[in-house]
Amino acid sequence: MFPDLVLLSARLLDPGTGSLLPHTALAAGGGRITHLGQDREVRALAGPATTVIDLKGAVVTAGFTDAHIHPVSGAERTMGVDLSGCRDLAAVRAALAERAATLAPGAWLRGWGLDPNAFGDAPVGAASLGPVLDGVPALIDLFDGHSVLASARALELAGVDGPRRFEQAAEIVCDDAGRPTGLLLEDAACELVEAVAPKPTQEEVRARTGEVLREMAAAGLTGGHAMDANGATLEILGALEAEDALPLRLRVAPWCQPGADADAVAGLVRLQGTGGTLWRVAGVKMFMDGTIDNGTAWLERPDCHGESVHAFWPDPDQYSWVVGELHRAGVPTATHAIGDAAVRHVLDSVEKAQAAGGAPVRHRVEHIETVPDDTVARFARLGVAASMQPTHCCEYTRADHTDNWSRRLGEERASRAFRCRDLWEAGARVVLGSDWPIAPFPPLGVMAGARHRRPGDLSLPPHGPEQALTPLQALQGITLAPAWVAGEEDVAGRPAVGHRADLTVLADNPLDVSDADLARLPVLLTVVNGRPTHRATDL
Known about the structure:
Layout: E1 5-8, E2 11-12, E3 25-29, E4 32-37, H1 39-43, E5 51-54, E6 59-62, E7 64-69, H2 71-77, E8 81-82, H3 89-100, E9 109-114, E10 138-142, E11 147-150, H4 152-158, E12 171-174, E13 180-185, H5 187-194, H6 202-218, E14 221-226, H7 233-242, E15 249-252, H8 262-271, E16 279-281, E17 284-287, H9 316-328, E18 333-337, H10 340-355, E19 364-367, H11 373-382, E20 385-388, H12 390-396, H13 404-409, H14 411-414, H15 420-425, E21 430-432, H16 443-452, H17 471-477, H18 480-485, E22 503-506, H19 515-518, E23 523-528, E24 531-535
Parallel strand pairs: 1-5, 2-6, 7-14, 8-9, 9-10, 14-15, 15-16, 17-18, 18-19, 19-20, 20-21
Antiparallel strand pairs: 1-3, 3-4, 6-22, 10-11, 11-13, 12-13, 22-23, 23-24
Helix pairs in contact: 2-6, 6-7, 9-10, 10-11, 12-16, 16-17
């Protein structure tokens, strides 16, 4: 049988060793790598329908996998005005005013990516934006995905006129007189206004998701661990695959929220393994806290505003019960845990579940923004993966600790930020991702951030340079580590015979490219399941 794909004149980079393999060509068929060898012998395998590509010395490595993305919900959220590049309130107001001027009377204004650092010393509230939203129903996502800013008109339409109590940790932020400021924290509060805002159709979301996934493929991504299956997510992924329009291999983890009972947990277990050729449900996503920027993280000591002292689950023991039930069923969990108390409770819960017996399950903790030494040491002992997003440190914190995140934490805890290197050296599996749309998805940018830990302006100093990963560690964090945490290390993560033909082809060896230049390294070809999903025009 002829192969589907032959790549010639290649340099094959093994992420396991960081070395170039003694081969110049590979062949793939049936979605797997079938041959490695020299150009002449592999070229001879090709048939009339085989796609043959001369890579002219380009570097082929295992496909890049983003271990934490939100491709469908993110596609919907990013259909509004992009505020992620606004560094101050003047820029935010200008961007909103430009979009507001195009709206029909009564139409809603949506925005996303708003950084609280843009507010400087002003409070994060609708009043700080000035008159630009007067009379306009507006709903703006802050960058963290855990909070929104609603205009006065939007609050009025939603009937939100004061504080309320929620079962989960959520808040309608109000001033001293009890009037809402427009800032809504966590899902339960945000959904009050989301419920009355217009929503795109499922077809519009599907089209936007397809567009986003194509952009991800062009950036070199062959796969992603999708941390949501809300709404019509699974239907949209199924429709895209049916249209042969799914360019990434996706591992999907549906959410489990506080209040989940035995029936809800059993439903999540039944979902496992469902899906298609390139996507399937595998794992469950949970939240142990919110964010440091909003004061909704769970810290062992309050932040400098006296906040971040509560778990997202009102009864943390109920979370532990859910972890135990899923562990016994062989279902891996991925828990959002940013603060030190949250991370500790997740590890305690996994340890308790493991002590109760059952087959090994690869659980993971997402984000891990600040933790003490004793917590770092537990990851390897428990076999829990550390899922990190180094560009969160680069994009939203600063070396001098003048950013909102660092000011809230104080010097001691801000100095132990995003401890990628410490976790790695302690023996933990450090898995890298972007958390898009929270931060940009290009994997070379994620790897670069892990290596230099600097903001977009690379002339500025790094935040915690001692926590930087080496070039090989960064490459492994986006190839081998995602394969391991998915239990797929025997079929993914390396350009080896029998492994999936998920490949990323670069103009040069990423291990030899400088930290400052890595994000701009051209992606020449992306291959998923033996099929090119992106091909540079000059290749």
